[in-house]
Design a protein that fits this description.
Helix content of chain A: over 70%
Structural class of chain B: mainly alpha
CATH architecture of chain A: Orthogonal Bundle
Distance between the termini of chain A: 29 Å
CATH topology of chain A: MetI-like fold
Oligomer: heterodimer
Radius of gyration of chain A: 23 Å
CATH superfamily of chain B: MetI-like
Strand content of chain A: under 5%
Largest sheet of chain A: none
Largest interface: A-B, 80 and 80 residues
Shape of chain B: flat
Helix content of chain B: 55-70%
Shape of chain A: globular
CATH class of chain B: Mainly Alpha
Number of domains of chain B: 1
Number of helices of chain A: 13
Structural class of chain A: mainly alpha
């Protein structure tokens, strides 16, 4: 009986992949590989689907997801790159440098940051951080310079990436700190006994040993970041605009709309066949990325087995 | 001369001198930089947490009124007429109950099978990785999956049919069922970890007394790991209460809990509604309501609930709570006596 229940969870995953893939197929089929490419405005495309009137020269399912994919990639990318550095430094601090008092404070702090619901992060972002960025960081000249392309306000790429970073850092700290703690003490003592100072020891021995675990934590955090929907729907600007890195600093103030946030904004049209299929296609892409990332997370952790620590 | 002075020296051992703790001042510049960067990050994280808590505390206390807990939300553009969040509060309670009601037994069963039976090994590994995959699937994708599955017409009894016969797939039952998937991996993980920590002699003792494996599991192992299961359940509750994407998609986030049909209790469960998270989302500038004061107040309540659950997990997992050996002695004695 227990076995049957367990196999049920296997069947569930299979069912999820199959149903989402089947429902997503029409959208992928109608657009081919250019589904992932650039072309046109996502808002116009959704509007056409809602109205049931195909864009001139295209099928009703015409959809080009590049602005959404690009938005997801850069928001996630910035958050993860900053997050790795912050989480690694914090994990080293937690395991090596922090006096007992600081450790007693930092442990619950990490747990608190991990526990705050994403909607609360989103609320703080849109009511406290976005207005501040809008008033203090975006100059009028900058606003003028892109006024014909896009309107700048506080809900933008920078805000989204920063808050996303705070959201994914706790899980990375927890996993990295676990890995650092499992580095055998004798390895570090050996290094210190040779006259290497503590930071060099951490850098050359502890972090080097824990590198696979830190990489795995990063992959896991990337998966979290990719799938984040509600917070990003609140603070990323909510316009499917593809920020242009050539814009210099303005790039960071341009709005984005990642894939998950798009689902949140558009799922109301699920009774409309074309819209529904497009949403399911976005969900299928997210599901595929999540599955690939959990595979990658498993793969990068393998070297740890060689050291005989962790699993 | 030298040898003589050594021989004359008193025989007391030299005093033990603690090696001075290596100061940072002797390190190369780069190493010192990293050392201070570690400190800065650590303190920075604390400051962020303090800022979040302080902001929510200040705003929450400023806008929180006792009447908010007992008033139904009302559609109004003015914040002072928009009512309270009684319905979302009840909604949170309902979905959490449903989701945990599904996830806890299922998760314990899966974990027990994986740890205590787990044959054939290939199947066990497949189940294990499927649970891990569920943990990695973004909640918005789970929500979309729920939307597809529960809008099948033969599952219409779980939600409601629109006038043109399509099933909306939006109800407390549907949302609870999908939210259970969020909590499932946490329950499975905590239960497995607790089972792995039990000493092997507990199983052996029970089996030696002639009890079957399932009886051993039910009467010895599961009672012994109750704190472990509880911490998994509480962690799962935290995830469920904090989730917004599934609620927004599968609960309809209507202002009030709208019953469907005439059967008491079932009509609420089949109906749409909202929870604290979707209430916060709806009242933020991103949603339709745009009542930031209500959003702050509800978010404050939400944060307090989550912090409370966090504290509960810490207490449950503290060493003082885990005493399987002591409890096992008691259990075994009871079993021997019949």
């Amino acid at each position: 009986m227990l076995g049957a229940l367990s196999v049920g969870s296997l069947a569930l995953i299979g069912l999820m992949v199959v149903t989402v893939a089947i429902k997503a197929w029409p959208s992928f089929h109608a657009n081919g590989l250019s589904w992932f490419g650039p072309g046109g405005d996502v808002v116009t495309q959704f509007r056409a689907m809602h109205a049931g009137v195909p864009l001139p020269g295209h099928s009703l399912l015409y959809f080009r997801a590049w602005p959404l994919i690009w938005g997801t990639l850069i928001v996630t990318g910035i958050a993860v790159v900053i997050g790795v550095v912050v989480a690694t430094l914090a994990a080293v601090f937690l395991t090596e440098f922090a006096p007992a008092g600081a450790r007693r404070v930092l442990d619950p702090v990490v747990r608190l940051l991990a526990g705050v619901p994403s909607v609360v992060y989103g609320l703080i972002g849109i009511l406290a951080i976005a207005p501040w960025i809008n008033e203090h960081l975006i100059s009028n000249a900058r606003r003028q310079s892109v006024t014909y392309v896009v309107q700048l306000n506080g809900a933008n790429l920078l805000t989204a990436a920063l808050i996303l970073m705070v959201m994914i850092v706790p899980i990375m700290i927890a996993l990295s700190a676990d890995a650092l703690r499992s580095v055998p003490g004798s390895w570090r003592e050996g290094s210190v006994a040779l006259g290497v100072n503590r930071w060099r020891t951490i850098w050359r021995v502890s972090l080097r040993t824990a590198r696979p675990a830190i990489a795995a934590a990063t992959v896991l955090a990337t998966a979290r970041a990719l799938g984040e929907a509600i917070m990003l729907a609140m603070v990323s600007g909510g316009r499917p605009f593809a920020p242009n890195p050539l814009d210099g600093l303005t790039f960071f103030y341009e709005p984005v709309q990642p894939l998950g946030a798009t689902i949140v904004q558009e799922f109301g049209g699920q009774t409309n066949g074309a819209v529904a299929s497009t949403i399911y296609a976005i969900a299928a892409l997210l599901l595929f990325s999540a599955a690939m990332l959990s595979l990658a997370g498993w793969a990068v952790k393998q070297p740890l087995k060689r050291y005989g620590i962790g699993a | 001369m030298a040898t003589a002075s050594v021989a004359d020296a008193p025989m007391t051992p030299p005093p033990v001198v603690e090696a001075p703790r290596e100061g940072v001042s002797t390190w190369p510049m780069v190493d010192r930089l990293f050392y201070w960067l570690c400190w800065v990050t650590g303190i920075g994280l604390c400051l962020i947490a303090v800022a979040i808590v302080l902001l929510m505390l200040v705003k929450g206390i400023a806008y929180l009124k006792p009447s908010l807990f007992i008033e139904h939300p009302a559609p109004s553009l003015r914040q002072d007429q928009a009512g309270g969040f009684l319905d979302p509060l009840i909604g949170t309670l309902i979905v959490t109950t449903i989701a945990i009601g599904i996830a806890a037994p299922l998760g314990v069963a899966i974990a027990a099978w994986l740890s205590e039976y787990g044959r054939p090994a290939g199947l066990a590994r497949a189940v294990e990785s499927s649970v891990e995959t569920i943990a990695g699937v973004p909640s918005i994708v789970l929500a979309i999956f729920g939307l597809i599955v529960f809008s099948q017409s033969f599952l219409g009894f779980l939600s409601q049919r629109a006038s043109n016969g399509t099933v909306t797939a939006q109800s407390f039952l549907v949302a609870g069922a999908i939210l259970a998937l969020l909590a499932l991996p946490l329950v499975v993980g905590a239960t497995r970890e607790a089972l792995a920590q039990l000493p092997g002699r507990m199983r052996e003792a029970s089996l030696a007394l002639g009890k079957s494996r399932i009886t051993t599991l039910r009467c010895v192992l599961l009672p012994a790991i109750r704190p472990g299961i509880a911490s998994g359940v509480v962690l799962g509750m935290g995830r469920i209460i904090g989730d917004t994407a599934i609620i927004v998609v599968l609960l309809g986030s209507t202002l009030r809990n709208e019953p469907v049909g005439g059967v008491p209790l079932l009509k609420t469960l089949r109906g749409t509604g909202s929870t604290l998270t979707s209430y916060v989302y709806g009242d933020s500038p991103a949603g339709e309501g745009n009542a930031p004061q209500k959003a702050y107040a509800a978010a404050f309540v939400l944060l307090m609930i989550v912090l409370l659950l966090n504290a509960l997990v810490t207490r449950l997992t503290s060493p003082a709570q885990i005493g399987p050996v002591r409890r096992f002695g008691h259990r075994a004695w009871a079993m021997v006596r019949g």
